[in-house]
Design brief:
This protein is an alpha/beta fold and 444 residues long. It folds into two domains: 191 residues, 3-Layer(bba) Sandwich (FAD/NAD(P)-binding domain); 197 residues, 3-Layer(bba) Sandwich (FAD/NAD(P)-binding domain), CATH 3.50.50. It is built from twelve helices and 25 strands. The strands form seven sheets. Strands 7-6-5-2-1-8-21-20 form an eight-stranded mixed sheet, covered by helices on one side. A five-stranded parallel sheet has the order 10-17-11-12-13. A three-stranded antiparallel sheet has the order 14-15-16, with no helix packed on it. A hairpin with a 5-residue loop joins strand 23 and strand 24. Helix 1 runs parallel beside helix 9 and helix 5 runs antiparallel to helix 6. The structure holds flavin-adenine dinucleotide (FAD). The site of flavin-adenine dinucleotide has 35 residues, from helix 1, strand 2, helix 2, strand 5 and helix 7. It holds the Pfam family Pyr_redox_2. It comes from Phytohabitans rumicis. Belongs to the NADH dehydrogenase family.
Length: 444
Amino acid sequence: MIEAVNPQRILVVGAGHVGLYAALRLSKKLRAREAEVTVVDPQPHMTYQPFLPEAAAGNISPRHSVVPLRRELKHCKIVAGAVTRIEHARRTATVQPIIGPPLEIEYDQIIVAPGSVSRTLPIPGLREHGIGFKTIGEAIYLRNHVLDRLDVGAATTDPETRRRALTFVFVGGGYAGIEALAEMEDMARDALKYYPELSVDDMRWVLVEATQRVLPEVDRDMGAYTVQQLLQRGLDIRLDTRLESCVDGVVKLSDGDSFPADTLVWTAGVKPSPMLDDTDLPRDERRRVTCAATLQVVDGDRVLEGAWSAGDCAAVPDLTGPPGTFCSPSAQHAVRQAVRMADNIRAVIRGQEPTPYKHKHVGSVASLGLHKGVAQVYGIKLKGLPAWFMHRTYHVSRIPSFNRKVRVIIDWTLAFFLKREVVALGQLHDPRVEFTDVTPPIKS
Ligand SMILES: Cc1cc2nc3c(=O)[nH]c(=O)nc-3n(C[C@H](O)[C@H](O)[C@H](O)COP(=O)(O)OP(=O)(O)OC[C@H]3O[C@@H](n4cnc5c(N)ncnc54)[C@H](O)[C@@H]3O)c2cc1C
């Protein structure tokens, strides 16, 4: 075994599914004299995104669907900031800390894992009225906003204001959109028990999907089952339909329909982090970092020594599919790629050969609200309660750390016995208003 003379400086860009798992494994598997690991992320936590719909629906405390970095990565150096530039030719990354001037960090090995952002389109009104569903902040906001709209609907005597407040539009029928829509509708329906002024028929939940099906991650019959379930619950499902505009909150669809809505959630896919535009790393036509199956960054056939990437921002060949196919952007691939990448970095540091990443996507599980779900795993198809149970079992087994698993299970148990919490904490979004209202300005 060849031991490095100086510890290798490993820089991890982004502490999401890839970054957290890779840093954790590196710090466990490499000795301090072999490597020092620095992790840069603007957030102090990793977000377990598959739990965002349950956090928004109030089944899990939002705090428990994130993993604190400083607690989990005790042997890594954590930098609270965003990487704004990578010059791999100089082995240097520029970091904008959350406060203060930018700093440059030199490295020997870099893990590029800033993930993805919502893939939006230039639709009039979208920027002003839309919200994504990728961050814990968005999930918390959406929960408070939906419950707040129920309060508005109950308080107003104007039928138009009520209709607008109680119209919720979700654009995009992948698992993020379907789970978010189904969980939020389930929560709102549950909350209506405490609103004698409102009935289920007052609410309008609309899914707008540009293709002819939902949940492309599972077979067509499972997608059709999902649509049928949502239709039976009274949701308005528009397939083969696009959002054309939402100026002043008036939603216009390609099928000619138009209606006002106070809520517009955009879940129509993701694209690699735009931060990658400020790097000298090779990218493919979809702007993903090009990788070999070993998770090393490659420019054509040439391996860029010391550069690694994985997850939503990377084009990683799928060795289980036909030639030319790539791994899908999913947590399932991201966490497994992270572990393979960490082991490959260790191998390279110790003068050994890296091993290609190979994992056949086992399928998907999606929750459609309490006790409802759809799952297709290893070819086995499950619907309703068994699918929902599998969703919960699978994800609690995947969320990092024993601490988080216990907290999530306690949340579920409490919600089972005490019913879920359906109060809006809208003040969180503007907490200083009351104080500034009673504090007079100083007259000059
Ligand atoms: C609502 C929802 C539900 C989902 N459900 C499932 C599911 O059921 N199953 C499944 O397999 N997948 C699911 N996914 C997809 C899965 O979460 C992603 O594929 C996975 O998170 C990708 O991991 P990643 O590490 O590439 O990116 P992320 O986990 O998003 O991590 C990226 C990290 O990089 C940080 N970052 C961004 N820019 C910078 C920068 N400039 N500098 C430093 N750090 C930066 C971010 O703060 C973040 O912490 C879901 C996604 C969503 C949104």
